[in-house]
Amino acid sequence: MHTFLALGLLSYLLGLLNSTRLTFIANDESDTAIALTQIIRGLQQPSLAILALPSLALSDGVCQKERSVYLDDFLQRLHRSNYKSVVFSQTELFFQHIEENLQGANECISLILDEPNQLLNSLHDRHLGHRLSLFIFYWGARWPPSSRVIRFREPLRAVVVTRPRKKAFRIYYNQARPCSDSQLQLVNWYDGDNLGLQRIPLLPTALSVYANFKGRTFRVPVFHSPPWFWVTYCNNSFEEDEELNSLDSIEKRKVRVTGGRDHRLLMLLSKHMNFRFKYIEAPGRTQGSMRSEDGKDSNDSFTGGIGLLQSGQAEFFLGDVGLSWERRKAIEFSFFTLADSGAFATHAPRRLNEALAIMRPFKQDIWPHLILTIIFSGPIFYGIIALPYIWRRPWVNSDVEHLGELCIHMTYLKEITPRLLKLKPRTVMSAYQMPHQLFQKCIWFTLRLFLKQSLFRALTLQL
User: Fold this and answer.
1) What is the pTM of this model?
2) Closest by alpha carbon to 447, among 386, 373, 360, 384?
3) Can you give the residue range of the structural domain that contains 299?
4) How does 432-457 read in b/e, with b if 16+ C-beta sit within 10 Å?
């Protein structure tokens, strides 16, 4: 038993070291067709592009014959499931099909029946690695390729399907973790003797994978462009570095960002999504312009910050970057952060204390004037009401004379002695007729008015 275990472990290690070796299981070709159909249906996409080269590196004619048998069966099952498929036998036509879909912003899923090391360089050189494109590799291998031999670098999305035994298939994905190593991770499997595909959808969503970057560090090109970035340069280099592909020379350029709208937005995103970032100076201190070698459009590349993204020396570029057709073919753009005259990212609204609702709208320099207005408005209102009573007090003839505690009514005396008593009538001012507690009512009226009470009730005061 130990001998068989050692032999099995040895075969597994040899399969990892020699990952480019094709290993096929030449039994029951329909198992492969059924498994591939279930895997494609797990992606929940209605169309598929298939690359089946006639000169595959299949070891012998038997493997070539097996590939053609399960491919025909696979296409029949795929069409019965109402899937649209297109089969290519030439890589150039296959690449053109993917480019047309990316230019139209259409999601494109491709099944490549070949080893990935023969096509990865072409996919990277033609910038076909995109969030809308997914490449599924199946060539009948028992084990996934070793990361020391083949690396699926971002932003390429790649799936490798292996067949360790009969009716068993494993699905590996290079973007199953938020780190940047792009190593293949087992995310799903198919078992023909059990329940088929383990889970649907086939791959984890980008929202679940990249919700937490777990402290990953990103390189972000930056240049002085207020109000988006306020940058202080720590060197005197202004000309673009001749060696654009040298990451060491770029990281030596020290920059210090002191503020800006996009700087604050980036800090908020890094805190929420748990990642770190490092600013690097954009060559030429510009967004970047298109340059072509020897006037050939096929070799178009960009300078500046866009050139760093295109060459893979930076992960993303945040700022007032203009969108053009040439730039869109070179790099990928996200949603717009400046759709109108301004866009703001703030904290979520929270419940405020209702007890301070009357104090919150006013600043500190407003409160002294407001308090003085409340204090003096009541007396001023009282004076406005009381002045007419003071100015218009009439003079009337006095009918009562006071001699100590004795009161003498002069009208009565004149009636009983009309000729004996001749007195000149004396005029006095009329009695004060202002309403009762007028001052207190004026103070209470102004307080209710400033405290936003009902004005109608305040006017019911009896003056």
Assistant:
1) 0.63
2) 373
3) 216-330
4) eeeeeebeebbbebbeebeeeeeeee
* Omega before residue 201 within 30° of 0, cis: yes
Q: How many Å is the Cα radius of gyration of the chain?
A: 44
Report strand pairing: 400-403 vs 406-409: antiparallel
Q: What is the CATH number of the domain that holds 141?
A: 3.40.50.2300
The reply to whether 261 and 197 lie within a common domain is no
- Domain presence at residue 229: yes
Rounded to 5 degrees, φ, ψ at 231 are -120, 135
Q: For residue range 141-198, what is the model confidence (pLDDT) as tens digits?
A: 999 998 888 888 888 999 999 999 988 999 999 999 888 777 899 999 999 888 889 9
Structure tokens that stand for 99 in this block: 């480019």
Beta bridge pairs of residue 98: none
> Going by DSSP bridges, is the β-strand pair 84-88/47-51 parallel, antiparallel, or unpaired?
parallel
pLDDT, tens digit (0-9, with 9 covering 90-100), for 17-32 = 444 333 344 445 588 8
Residue 281 and residue 284: Cα distance in Å, rounded? 8
Closest CA to 305 of 320, 324, 325: 320
What are the CA-CA distances from residue 401 to residues 413, 425, 427, 433 (Å)? Answer: 11, 11, 12, 22
Burial 42-69 (b: 16+ CB within 10 A, else e): bbebeebbbbbbeebebeeeebeebbee
Whether 361 maps to a domain, the answer reads: no
CA 191 – CA 202 distance, rounded (Å): 14
For CA atoms 302, 304, 309, 313, give the dihedral sign.
positive
377 shares its domain with 316: no
List CB contacts of 43: < 8 A, sequence separation 6 or more: 109, 134, 201, 202, 203
E-strand stretches of 133-209: 133-137, 158-165, 168-173, 185-191, 196-197
Residues 305 and 391 occupy one common structural domain:
no
Assigned domain for 285 exists: yes
Run of H or E residues at 301: strand 301-302
Report residue 186: phi and psi, to 5°.
-70, 120
| CA separation for the pair 197, 46 (Å, rounded) | 18
